[in-house]
Design goal:
Length: 612
């Protein structure tokens, strides 16, 4: 479809002309916006009227249904109260005083219904036999302020009288029901209905409610003067009453009902279940649809203002925008070409001035950053030269420490041992033995410096997967061989695989060896591995090294905790430092208790299947 449209000569020329100019693009875009806005405004004008009318209908219908439900619940509750009162065994006693006392008690204590009076009618002589109000006893039924047929098919039937005023001036309804224990008698419970409409709210200002029965009489209303009046001037039923008596609920367009309802109103109706009543919610038509006219007026005004604004944008801003964008484009292209002495219109007060100032600031920032990058490049080159020199020095020093010093230390240890074997003086022999042990310690330090160098080399490398129990076996066997009088126990799950440096087992073995050496006699060292964490948070294993001897020297622990050594705070050996640096190469943690000198290493657990 689009291709066919573009194939037309006039359309193709128009599209090409619009593409070549931002001003024409702006004009075309604004024209499309104007056209769409006009169509939307007309559609909105029509739809708003429909939606608001539907909203009035829905809100009033909902109000009518709500009021009908309230009346259904209210009448049903009072029917139940009447039935409960009629089923009490007190009526079987035949004692009027007991019945009167019961009715008086129920009137005073019943909270679910506002009982005004309760009395028993003898249907044989048509008089009030017993009443909660004694002054009503003996009154003939024809003198009561209500009329009702006494036709009941079952003892559970309850009939409702029309509203009437009792002797106290209150508007009440009577609920009549047979008494099972007293055949030929009826119980009448009068309920106050004056506050019934206080709970109802009208969705439209000026609204009112009428409850009409099947005879077209207003039996309940929120205006007492309208009660017991005909809903229509004629005796015919209103259409709303007819539909409601059929069980329907609905809405009527503006209508009037003669002199009793002279104004044009809209009405919603709903039936009251269990009765011949229909609730009709009224509202003045002018009030119900007042907002529709106001909204349509505002829509028209907004459309006119929008049209004027769009035309102003095309005429006033189009030319200025295109000129400014053209100048900015040319200057940006010069910066892109490496020309940083471009001038911008920084004195302009509008948004294009802000954009010019931003580009000027960007130009200056780029110029400064390029200069800093050049300086950084020169500094990095000088730093690389110094690093290469220091690397060579470290290599030479490591070779000297590892080979020359180690060889000399081994010579000292060997010669000292030979001399000690030929000396008979016990004290001198002990001194020579001390010299030999000290020399061997220097030899161990030389070995550990090689591991530290390896750690420095491998610090940026990836860790490897170690089956912890197997990896610890070989280096710990060497420690056991050197200290057979001490005990080293390892309790690590056989299937635990951690991600760590290859030097981790040697570092742990060095710590165990230092613990044994620091103790005066045989010592027992325990290495326990405890899995921790979850699959969601990340699984890990905590390796705890504890002993019953002197433990790691406190000076070593404090030095490693502070992360530096001072003349007053320095380690006696490199074992704990090696372990710390080894753990730092992984995602693990090292924790040492200064008091108990207990070492705890937390290492991440890896999945061998995922690794493979």
């Amino acid at each position: 479809m689009i291709r066919r449209l573009l194939s037309l000569p006039g359309v193709r020329l128009l599209v090409e002309a619009v593409r070549d100019s931002y001003r024409r693009k702006l004009a075309a875009g604004l024209f499309v916006v104007l056209l769409v806005s006009a169509v939307a405004a007309v559609g909105l004008y029509v739809q708003v009227g429909v939606l608001l009318s539907e909203n009035v209908e829905q809100s009033m219908t909902a109000a009518a249904n709500s009021e009908a439900s309230e009346l259904t619940e209210w009448t049903g509750q009072n029917r139940l109260v009447a039935r409960l009162l009629s089923e009490h065994p007190v009526y079987g006693s035949g004692e009027p005083a007991a019945v009167r006392s019961y009715l008086q008690t129920q009137r005073a204590e019943r909270t679910e219904a506002e009982i005004v009076n309760a009395y028993v009618i003898d249907r044989r002589n048509l008089t009030v036999e017993t009443s909660a109000r004694r002054e009503l006893e003996g009154t003939a039924v024809e003198d009561l302020p209500w009329e009702q047929r006494f036709a009941f098919q079952r003892f559970t039937d309850v009939r409702i009288t029309r509203p009437y005023e009792d002797g106290t001036g209150e508007t009440v309804l009577g609920f009549l029901t047979p008494i099972r224990a007293m055949p030929g008698h009826l119980l009448v419970v009068t309920i106050d209905s004056t506050g019934l409409f206080d709970r109802f709210e009208h969705p439209v200002d000026g609204g009112y409610t009428r409850v009409v029965d099947s005879n077209g009489t207003v039996v309940l209303a929120d205006n007492r003067s309208a009660m017991l009046q005909q809903y229509r001037d004629e005796r015919l039923r209103a259409p709303e009453v007819v539909s409601g008596l059929r069980g329907d609920a609905g809405f009527s367009d503006p209508v009037n009902y003669g002199r009793s309802n002279p104004d044009r109103t809209v009405a919603a109706y709903a039936p009251v279940e269990g009765t011949d009543w229909v609730v009709i919610e009224h509202a003045p038509a002018d009030e119900a649809y007042a907002i529709t006219g106001q909204v349509r007026t505002w829509i028209g005004l907004v459309g006119v203002v929008a049209l004027f604004g769009l035309l102003s944008v095309v005429v006033v801003l189009g030319a200025d925008v295109t000129r400014s964008l053209s100048r900015l484009t040319a200057r940006a292209e010069r910066i892109q070409a490496g020309e940083y002495d471009v001038d911008f219109d920084t004195d302009r007060p509008d948004e294009f001035g802000d954009l010019n100032r931003t580009l000027a600031s960007t130009r200056d920032t780029l110029r400064e950053r390029f200069e800093k990058l050049r300086e950084t490049e020169r500094a990095l080159r000088r730093s690389n030269v110094r690093l290469e020199e220091r690397s060579s020095m470290v290599t030479v020093l490591n070779r000297i420490l590892r080979h020359n010093v180690r060889n000399d230390v081994n010579i000292i240890a060997g010669r000292t041992q030979s001399v000690a074997e030929d000396v008979d003086d016990e004290r001198l022999r002990e001194e020579l033995d001390t010299v030999r042990r000290t020399a061997l310690k220097l030899s161990d330090i030389s070995d550990r410096t090689q591991r530290i160098k390896q750690l420095l080399v491998d610090r940026g490398a990836e860790t490897t997967s170690l089956r912890l129990a197997d990896a610890l076996e070989a280096p710990l066997e060497e420690v056991r061989a050197e200290a057979p009088e001490s005990t080293i126990r390892v309790d690590v799950p056989a299937d635990v695989v951690v991600g760590a440096s290859e030097t981790l087992p040697l570092a742990i073995a060095d710590v165990v060896e230092q613990i044994i050496v620091a103790s005066d006699g045989p010592v027992s060292v325990d290495i326990d591995g405890t899995p921790t964490g979850t699959e969601r948070d990340g699984q890990s294993v905590t390796l705890a090294v504890s002993d019953d001897g002197a433990g790691i020297p406190k000076m070593d622990v404090l030095a490693v905790e502070r992360g530096e050594e001072t003349p007053l705070n320095h380690a006696e050996g490199l074992a704990l430092w090696c372990l710390k640096w080894t753990v730092d190469t992984t995602a693990g943690d090292l924790d040492v208790d200064p008091e108990g000198a207990t070492v705890a290493v937390r290492l991440p657990v890896v999945d061998e299947r995922a690794e493979s």
